[in-house]
């Protein structure tokens, strides 16, 4: 009899706790708490997933067009646009006989965020060390924009330097406002 009374009390406590959880879950408060989940094999596999992106590079011969380069890399914790930008800024072309990277030494990607179809890319001040000349500045800015607008969620690109909008990198290409894809510089 005593055993049954203890079991009945435990059952009542459990039912009360469940009722509290149920009532709390049905309240008008719409805030949600996200509890980080431990990494599973699935999330680890996504980090090891290979992704292929297209980046645009200038030709070695100095002609005024951009060449597409497909590059495959493990995704890690980066999004596809972040991977493409990282490859564009921090790696040499696969075919150095045909393509060249125009990024000045020491250029860093400080941040990148996408809002309402515009990618805001903040570079370190070293990007302004681009060699003097309208060709290099045009090709560099267009390579950034065309690489990022390969992704459907990005329609425009705002280039920032040390967190600020600037008129141009060296006085030739206006980057004060977001730039759209330039298909006239893509080799046909």
Automatic annotation (TrEMBL):
Domain of life from the UniProt record: Bacteria
UniProt KW keywords: Signal
SMART domains the record matches: Germane (SM00909)
Domain GerMN, residue spans: 81-170
Keyword Transit peptide listed: no
Any one Pfam family match given in the protein's UniProt record, by short name: Germane
Signal peptide (from-to): 1-26
InterPro entries on file: GerMN (IPR019606)
Name of protein: Spore gernimation protein
Originating organism: Phascolarctobacterium faecium
Taxonomy of the source species: Bacteria, Bacillati, Bacillota, Negativicutes, Acidaminococcales
